[in-house]
Amino acid sequence: MTARGRALAILTALSVFVAGWVVFVARWSGPAGAGPDRGFGVAGARAAALDAFGDQLLIWAPGGLSEREVGLVRDSTRVAAISAVRTGLLAVASGRRGSYRVVPVEAMGVDPDAYGAAAGRAGGKLASMLDRGAVLSRTGAGLRRLRPGGRLRLAGGSSLRVTGVVDDALLAGYEVALDRDVSGRYGVRRASYLLVRPRGPLTGLEAAVRGLLKGRPVQFALAADRRFLRGEDGALPLSLVKARFGEFALPSLRRGGPDPGWTRSNLVTRRVPVLGRVRCHRMVVEDLAAAMGDLQRRKLDGLVDAAEVRRRGGCWSRRLLRGRDGRLTRYAWGTAVAFQAASPPAGRPALDQRVLKAMAGHGFAWVGHGGAHFEWVGAGA
Fold first, then answer.
1. Among candidates 216, 43, 16, which has minimal Cα distance to 142?
2. Residue 249 lies in a domain
3. How many domains are contained in the chain?
């Protein structure tokens, strides 16, 4: 090859490298809101786009469903088929010495045949995988750096054989799926939601379920309504929280906060409009500042009780890391914020829609839990 040819080859290679690097940086750097998909990669799309769960109705109630309630729905004449999805956290070994030996991994436990039937065309193969071991979502496998045939090592020394890796939507955003008998041995027992194939019109089934579960704030959804067909609509699945904001180790699933190395690398204290000094994840604080700036420019900052945010510590404080049941909250990642909305004018709702829109415009979804509680979920909030 001539000197001119070698020079052209080198320039071509450099151009390809630079183009790839620009795409990478545009997608993964900057504030949480950067990039066409708000800065994180997602394996797959909506479950409906995969032709999965197309004939299923999701039934969900806060706090999950007891075995008695599952039985009541199962035995209804309006139900043709049902799959109860049990969810919780697995204590996965961090591989570290010292106090921080556990990584929380969001898991589901299901009956392989029932869940496989609910999943649709891809369900037969999924059920076969579940019969033989642990199935990981694509994002979950990436976080664990595992492939089929590998071992998911748990705290305490046991491990689970990985029998498959599937699109995130087939596992409703959970990182790992197990046979319900296996998941029960690791504490994943309570039914969080049901997938039901109706017998007859949807309206008839919904009315029947509300009658069976009297007094429960039951919610319903279809695959086309949600990115992931799971309970707790609005919250970002833990796998995507970790893929975007980082994964940390804990002393145990029920005790302590993130390891100090993660907090040093990811949490920052900044002054933002309206709220003053707050401590948040470094990739969220700019979006929070932009949302508060919008409210301030529109003279709507009086709708926010900034003192409440300061009392809480911003997006992150040790007393907010866990809920009353000991489970981690999104405050552990510094990606949530709650403020008591100031008293609205007479006739207006307690949480002004203009606050909701301002927060949603910068990636924060209102996820209930009482009051003005927001979590960063990205585009489409």
1. 43
2. no
3. 3
What single-letter DSSP state applies at residue 373?
E
Q: Contacts for 251-254 with beta carbons within 8 Å, 24 or more apart?
A: 251/99, 251/100, 251/101, 251/102, 252/91, 252/102, 253/89, 253/91, 253/102, 253/104, 253/326, 254/322, 254/326
What does the alpha-carbon distance between residue 365 and residue 379 come to, in Å, rounded to a whole number? 10
| Phi, psi (degrees; rounded to nearest 5) at 285 | -60, -35
Q: What residues make up the domain containing 18? A: 1-30
338 beta partners: 373
pTM over 0.90: no
Both 276 and 338 in one domain: the answer is yes
Element (H, E) at 337: strand 336-339
Question: pLDDT tens, 256-301?
Answer: 999 999 999 999 999 999 999 999 999 999 999 999 999 999 999 8
Do 368 and 316 lie in one domain? The reply is: yes
